[in-house]
Amino acid sequence: MAATQAEILIVEDDEVIVGTLAYNLARQGFEVSRATTGAEGLRMARKLRPDLILLDIMLPGESGIRVCERIREEDEDVVIIMITAKDAEEDKVRGFEAGADDYVTKPFGMKELVARIHAHLKRSEAGQRGRILEAGDLSLDTKNFVARVGGEPLRLRLKEFELLAALASDPGELKSREELAKEVWGHAGVGSSRTIDVHIRRIRAALEKKSAYDYIHTARGLGYRFEPVPRKEGVAARPPE
């Protein structure tokens, strides 16, 4: 799969701070996601597998310290930077003991924070962690190239997996054959051939044997769109195109 921009998850309940961080980080070219509670942050960390998490300590419900500990139970690699108004030495020690990689106290300078983010991501080879894409009964682990339907493994060839992940990464978005060729093969050379169509046909055939959903929809003359649509009982899978 083509390399992706580093993804940053912001877990912060102050909407002004979240908005400011998201705006500035997006301008730096990062893909940014937001969560406003510890529970939401945990769920999104599991689903998105971001490269870096900016984590406030004083969150509603579960504290950032506990959220950090729980993330570390499942993910040793993600970079976690605590951003908090708690500046006592014992607070910083608690953050590091919970598994944080860095600790930034409010108010902080955006340039300094961005510099720290770049430094951490450079060391952790950002953008190579992959993510978990979930829709309907389908799950795609883009780091380990594992596809599952209803929890059961789905056998796909590498390019079939990459093509399905390219579509599933932007649900509802129409993608032309040329766009998919660039994203999966790295060039548009196969976009005008039947290569994309053949791979799509194989992916559909594999999915239709196990899934209760139709996922890949054709826009004739334009390309393909990913959207999980439950297949009606008694209705046969779509004929080959």
TrEMBL record:
MF terms in GO: phosphorelay response regulator activity; transcription cis-regulatory region binding
Response regulatory domain mapped to chain residues: 7-121
Pfam families: Response_reg, Trans_reg_C
Gene3D superfamilies: 3.40.50.2300, 6.10.250.690, Winged helix-like DNA-binding domain superfamily/Winged helix DNA-binding domain (1.10.10.10)
Domain OmpR/PhoB-type: 130-228
Positions in coiled-coil regions: none
Highest taxon listed in the record's lineage: Bacteria
Modified residues (4-aspartylphosphate): D56
Protein name (Swiss-Prot/TrEMBL): DNA-binding response regulator
SUPFAM superfamilies from the UniProt entry: C-terminal effector domain of the bipartite response regulators (SSF46894), CheY-like (SSF52172)
Keywords for the protein's UniProt record, in alphabetical order: DNA-binding, Phosphoprotein, Transcription, Transcription regulation, Two-component regulatory system
InterPro entries reported in the protein's UniProt record: CheY-like_superfamily, OmpR/PhoB-type_DNA-bd, Sig_transdc_resp-reg_C-effctor, Sig_transdc_resp-reg_receiver, WalR-like, WH-like_DNA-bd_sf
A cellular-component GO term for this protein: protein-DNA complex
DNA-binding residue intervals: 130-228
Biological process according to GO: regulation of DNA-templated transcription
Species annotation: Rubrobacter xylanophilus
